[in-house]
Design brief:
single chain; 237 residues; mainly alpha; Serine Threonine Protein Phosphatase 5, Tetratricopeptide repeat; 14 helices; 49% helix
Length: 237
């Protein structure tokens, strides 16, 4: 009997015997009717059987519509990959502003979650220069009414979080010369502009080492920044 003549109930039973998303997807693409009937089942199978891995993939690549579909099927917004990165962390790292907004609006999302390296979404966004995402994440800490019209209230993001090497978001932004993001971070009361990591290096040290003149000027204008600080190799900025 051709597949097109089978009932929807029987088609779903066949799908239930398939082990992987790839097998279900291949089966669904056999014809348009199958695809229409099984597309939702494919999302649901991933959520229930594969730990919402599809949400992680969609967030990493900025597929907003796909992210929404997974959320509609009850995907775990705090699912983690092998490096303990959540959908929010992956979206922030890659600068997917729309996905970040969508995830921050979900109940139970931790905007300050730490991955295997103790890095947060804010840490990744600052390193990669994603200004819009940084603003969204900082808005979870110090409320910006213009941004929060788009978001639900969240628990606070720590703008001065430390990763496994003792580096802060400001340190990463300074090293990479992201001037606007450095300004945003310096405007946060909780940020220490002269914090030393485990190697004794400060944001000023990283900025100077990489020739980011504008960032160096911003840091030197801050109270408490030591222009002659020494790292573990006794080097100054």
């Amino acid at each position: 009997m051709p597949l097109r003549d089978l009932s929807d109930k029987l088609l779903l039973c066949i799908s239930g015997e398939l082990d992987s998303d790839a097998d279900i997807n291949a089966f669904a693409r056999s014809n348009w009717r199958l695809y229409s009937n099984l597309n939702t089942y494919l999302y649901r199978h991933n959520v229930r059987q594969l730990g919402s891995s599809g949400l992680l993939w969609a967030a990493e690549y900025g597929l907003t519509v796909v992210v929404q579909r997974f959320l509609d099927e009850g995907a775990n917004v705090e699912a983690k990959n092998a490096r303990h990165r959540t959908p929010l962390c992956l979206a922030a790292e890659n600068g997917h502003e729309a996905v970040v907004k969508l995830l921050l609006a979900q109940h139970g999302v931790d905007p300050d979650c730490q991955d295997f390296y103790n890095r947060t979404p804010l840490s990744w966004a600052t390193e990669n220069g994603h200004e819009a995402v940084v603003k969204l994440l900082l808005a979870q800490h110090s409320v910006d009414p213009a941004v929060l019209k788009l978001l639900l209230a969240q628990d606070g993001v720590n703008p001065d979080s430390r990763d496994e090497n003792g580096r802060t978001p400001l340190s990463w932004a300074a090293e990479n010369g992201h001037e606007t993001i450095v300004k945003l971070l310096l405007a946060q009361d909780a940020v220490n502009p002269d914090f030393c990591n485990e190697d004794g290096r400060t944001p000023l040290s990283w900025a100077a080492d990489n020739g980011h003149e504008a960032v160096v000027k911003l840091l030197l204008a801050q109270d408490g920044v030591n222009p002659d600080s020494r790292d573990e190799n006794d080097w100054t900025p």
